[in-house]
From TrEMBL:
Gene3D superfamilies: N-(1-d-carboxylethyl)-l-norvaline Dehydrogenase, domain 2 (1.10.1040.10), NAD(P)-binding Rossmann-like Domain (3.40.50.720). It comes from Rhodoplanes roseus. This is 6-phosphogluconate dehydrogenase. Signal peptide: none annotated. GO terms for molecular function: NADP binding.
Length: 302
């Protein structure tokens, strides 16, 4: 079978996966994104065309002839995207939800796709997509997961089927996210408080001694940078993690707290114009947060 791939969503992850499929797997890829018809549409369509992807402003056009449709939207739009796709999907196509959402949301996505007659497989993306591109590790679950894993494998994708029940893959992702984003929230809170007394470097040195093997300055730069640029979607993901914990019968105390701290920081960083488009170091992020917090304190005391 010659695979033809359609993407819903052409953000960071979608662009990276699409570029790899076109360049390495030599697969025909179409992409649909609501933003293609927006104010920045021309630039986004040019970016898609530059990596060999056919940009579509109509979802029906993107779905036409597709054997696999990958959904890579923000988590809060996963079900709505599936409902829209169901109107144009045809039997024989596999709809793959790759969004970071809870098992319960994945099941809602599957229910939305079902009337189309297309197959549904959930996917959990288990690492940051760049620099892996289309080779990013994926866990798949659903009745067609094993078959799809083999098909994606021929395209060079690192897909592993972990079960035939929808929710088995996303459970891994959601529980992992509590740990990963938890580290992010801990670094934010600890280092921002430490900066007040100019002891952030001492704190990082101490963490490095306790947990050797990692460059904790690099870790801090990575995670605080993700907060600054992608905080909104990380908050959404933590809300889904909290839902997952609740579905399992536990009070999601930590999941909610992690989302709150990341959201608090992103709210204060989202309008910053970083040189080059992103902060170069955790030092830049802490300085900006400290400035915003101190300004708010001065305003409140005036």
């Amino acid at each position: 079978m010659t695979e033809r791939v359609a993407l819903i969503g052409f953000g960071e992850a979608g662009r990276s996966i699409a570029a790899g499929l076109v360049e390495e797997a030599k697969v025909a890829v179409k992409a649909y994104d609501l933003r293609f018809a927006g104010p920045q549409g021309a630039a986004l369509r040019e970016a898609a065309a530059a990596c060999g992807v056919t940009p579509c402003t109509d979802l029906r056009e993107a779905a036409d002839g597709a054997t696999v449709m990958l959904s890579l939207v923000v988590g809060s739009a996963a079900v709505a995207a599936a409902r829209s796709a169901a109107e144009v999907l045809k039997p024989g196509c596999v709809y793959v939800d790759m969004n970071s959402v809870s098992p319960g949301t994945k099941r809602k996505v599957g229910a939305a796709v079902a009337p189309s007659g297309a197959d549904f497989v959930e996917a959990a993306v288990m690492a940051r997509v760049p620099p892996y591109g289309h080779r990013v590790p994926l866990l798949l679950a659903g009745p067609k997961a094993q078959e799809l894993a083999a098909r994606l494998g021929t395209l060079g994708m690192a897909a592993e089927a972990v079960g035939d029940t929808v929710g088995q893959a996303s459970l891994n992702k959601m529980l992992r996210s509590i740990m990963v984003k938890g580290i992010e929230a801990l670094l934010l809170e600890s280092l921002l408080c430490a900066k007040r007394w100019n002891i952030e470097e001492r704190i990082l040195d101490s963490i490095g001694e306790t947990f050797p093997g990692l460059d904790w300055r690099e870790v801090a730069t990575y995670y605080l940078g993700r907060t600054a640029i992608h905080g909104a979607r990380r908050v959404t993901e933590m809300a889904e993690s909290a839902d997952t914990v609740a579905e399992l019968g536990l009070d999601p105390i930590m999941s909610k707290a992690v989302g709150q701290r990341i959201g608090w920081a992103h709210e204060r960083l989202r309008d910053v114009s970083w040189p080059g488009g992103a902060p170069k170091s955790y030092i830049d992020v802490l300085a900006e947060l400290d400035r915003k917090v101190r300004a708010a304190e001065m305003k409140a005391s005036a």
